[in-house]
Amino acid sequence: MKKPITLIIIDDHPMVLTGLSAILETIADFELKGKFLSAETALEYLTGQKVDLLISDIHLPGINGIELCKQVLLKYPDIKVVIMSTFEDRSYIRDMIENGAHGYMSKSISADELKSILYRVMDGEMCFQIPGTGLTQASQQHDIILTRREKEILSCIAQGFTNKELADRLFVSQHTIDSHRKNLLMKFKVQNTAALIAQAAKSGFL
């Protein structure tokens, strides 16, 4: 039996959580593990539980969605993060991409559009609903956007650091480094480290 994709959702409006939960329960292969009204309670949950996907509102009391995305991906780089908002501001989308989000969706999208974004993100795409353009992939070769940590790791990889050396240098686990390395390969659409370095240099990142 295929293992379900586990996820949690965060929004400070209970009605939004209820509505989103109802839609998610109709999507095959997905299993909702928790609903949270704040980023803080979601982060507390993640210290003891493993999930595959996190969906969060961008505007939250306390820690906002962008900061939550940053914190989650630093600690749990295997989690896919999709941010949602009532606002369609390109600057927000840019901030989300730079902090590692895998997708963005407006709260006004249909259930079918929601399903499409989530499936595409879980298939390894970066899927952002850019205002005025519909759904698009932000990981196209001419528009590669790296997080600050990814830029740091890419530079170290180019200098010949091993995963263990990188883990020791950045005070994280080797598994975390391996996840970041896989994300870099995906973003540059390459299969190995040599191709990654060559493509990164060609694209102006090195």
SSE topology sketch:
Layout: E1 5-10, H1 14-24, E2 30-36, H2 39-46, E3 53-57, H3 65-75, E4 80-85, H4 90-98, E5 103-106, H5 111-122, E6 127-130, E7 134-137, H6 148-158, H7 163-170, H8 174-188, H9 193-202
Parallel strand pairs: 1-2, 1-3, 3-4, 4-5, 5-6
Antiparallel strand pairs: 6-7
Helix pairs in contact: 6-8, 7-8
Task: Please explain how this structure is put together.
- The protein has 206 residues and is α/β, with parallel strands linked by helices.
- The protein folds into two domains: 5-138, Response regulator (Rossmann fold), CATH 3.40.50; 144-202, Arc Repressor Mutant, subunit A (Orthogonal Bundle).
- The chain is 46% helix and 17% strand.
- The protein is built from nine helices and seven strands.
- It has helices at 14-24, 39-46, 65-75, 90-98, 111-122, 148-158, 163-170, 174-188, 193-202, and strands spanning 5-10, 30-36, 53-57, 80-85, 103-106, 127-130, 134-137.
- Helix 7 (163-170) packs across helix 8 (174-188).
- The longest helix has 15 residues, at 174-188.
- Residues 138-142 have low confidence and may be disordered.
